[in-house]
Specification:
This protein has helices spanning 41-49, 58-78, 98-109, 152-161, 178-182, 189-192, 208-217; strands at 12-17, 20-25, 31-33, 87-91, 118-122, 137-143, 163-172, 204-205, 220-227, 230-235. With 237 residues, it is α/β, with parallel strands linked by helices. 30% of the residues lie in helices and 24% in strands. Strand 4, helix 3 and strand 5 (118-122) form a beta-alpha-beta unit. The protein contains seven helices and ten strands.
């Protein structure tokens, strides 16, 4: 019996698609790639290096804005008048830290951010030397990263550790629906044909229940689904 790496439940079902084995949790509905089927670190890096995510690409710029703009609005609605975003960490910034670059534009233009806001990007492959803020960031962004978590509970704790007490964490990932995550059927056809599964470096697929459970176990409180693929949390004080 395999343990769900999202919620630690033992209520799991094993299934395979081609040569890849998966663990489906009957408790939270999430699906994880079996650890024996992970890509090697070298293959993961090669895959990430092929990403050409640039602000020069209008489509990708729009994708980033569709994530971060609603996040800023939701944070503004939840924070008190004395709170300011002075430190932002992009967790998993990638080979080209496009989100950091967009935030730097916002800072320069006075959009959402003050000119004194400090922005950092950390990535285990491309920016491992970036230090977390000593007292944690006011806002941590984690866009298209959580699906790469090989150990979601452990990785979520590390993500949480980069945020200050009372700070915000915004996670962007595509979710399984609650219905299909709960029961994909004998052949798992819906999951089999889902394009998001086809990237071999995507190894954790969450339902909302699973994502919230994982985050809460790491010390985060769920605030709201900002969009259908952006989820705002606050670090427990």
């Amino acid at each position: 019996m395999k343990i769900c790496r999202v919620c630690n439940s033992e209520e799991t079902t094993l299934f395979s698609i081609k040569k890849t084995n998966y663990i489906h949790c009957r408790n939270c509905g999430s699906i994880c790639t079996d650890e024996n089927c992970f890509e090697t670190t070298d293959n993961q890096r090669l895959r990430y290096e092929k990403h050409h995510n640039s602000l020069a690409d209008d489509g990708y710029r729009s994708f980033l804005e569709a994530f971060i703009n609603p996040v800023f609005k939701a944070v503004h609605e939840n924070k008190n008048e004395t709170e300011t975003l002075q430190k932002i960490m992009d967790y998993g910034s990638g080979p080209e830290p496009a989100l950091c670059q967009l935030l730097q534009e916002y800072r320069k233009n006075g959009r959402y951010l003050s000119e004194s806001c400090e922005i950092r990007g950390w990535d285990p492959f491309f920016a491992p030397e970036t230090a977390f803020f000593d007292d944690g960031a006011d806002l941590v962004t984690c866009l298209e990263v959580a699906e790469h978590f090989e150990k979601p509970l452990d990785d979520m704790k590390k993500l949480c550790s980069s945020c200050k007490s009372g700070g915000y964490v915004a996670v962007g990932t595509m979710l399984l629906s609650e219905e299909t995550g709960a029961d994909y059927g004998h052949e798992y056809d819906t999951f089999r044909n889902w394009w998001y599964r086809s990237d071999a470096t995507h190894v954790a697929f969450y339902t909302l229940k699973g994502l919230v459970s994982c985050a809460e176990s790491a010390g985060l409180t769920f605030i709201k689904a900002v969009t259908d693929r952006a989820f705002l949390f606050r670090k427990t004080v």
